[in-house]
């Protein structure tokens, strides 16, 4: 008898759920959409402000259906695709709730370096994709300039992860991304290095925030070894001589650091 009672109770619960869902769908069909039905959450963990509430709201509330907007007019999958078309947005999740709410969660892209070529400027994000500048916000990140000529339009649809090795090895931007990604993963180096200059030999020179010297890195080969050498020199060498003793610290040579002193 108890078992039969449990089965009946379970069946009534399932029926009740379907009835509630039916009422909810019927309610949404006739429900007029307004701003009270919209909840937008934007991920500001990285402190970037490329996207704000109004940007997302305008994408959501714009419909080609004239007149009154109803809740059932909104297709969540289409809205997600539309929002992600914003070049500053990495991901978007849109879903409806039974009580008639439209929830939107947006994640912004995170640039790790800003590129200055001879003619234009753009970002590279944490995944190696090119990202256009915004007229609303400028990210305070490391910059790269010098002998860079690759235009944004040439490869903005590609990213470092998806390129074949044979292609990736032929572009300087991929070396820039590898260097910027390495620096970005270190709290110390990301705080210390503010600029990278590409010289006429297409070698990298680092400009630190502290000290009057430049750091000649050369290529991106053996990055951990080069930065470890520099760290040891920072900890053991510069405290003895001072941060303004040298004009150049060269890491290109194996097993040694070559420094050029400043002579007054």
Provide an overview of this structure.
35% of the residues lie in helices and 24% in strands. It is of the alpha/beta class and 264 residues long. The chain folds into two domains: 30-108, Ubiquitin-like (UB roll) (Roll); 111-261, Rossmann fold. Strands 6-5-4-7-8-9-10-11-12 form a nine-stranded mixed beta sheet. Helix 8 (223-241) links the parallel strand 10 (214-218) and strand 11. The longest helix has 29 residues, at 2-30. The N and C termini lie far apart (101 Å). The model is unreliable at 163-169 (pLDDT under 50).
The profile of the biggest β sheet is:
9 strands, mixed
Which word captures the global form? elongated
The total count of strands amounts to: 12
CATH class of the largest domain: Alpha Beta
Approximately how much helix is present in the residues? 25-40%
CATH topology of the largest domain: Rossmann fold
In what order do the strands lie side by side in the largest sheet?
6-5-4-7-8-9-10-11-12
- What does the average pLDDT come to? 81
Summed up, the helix count is 8
Distance between the termini: 101 Å
CATH architecture of the largest domain: 3-Layer(aba) Sandwich
Number of domains: 2
Poorly predicted runs are 163-169
The H-and-E topology, N to C, reads as HEHHEEEEEEHHHHEEEHEE
Question: How much strand content do the residues show?
Answer: 15-25%
**Over all CA atoms, what is the radius of gyration?**
27 Å
- Indicate the structural class: alpha/beta
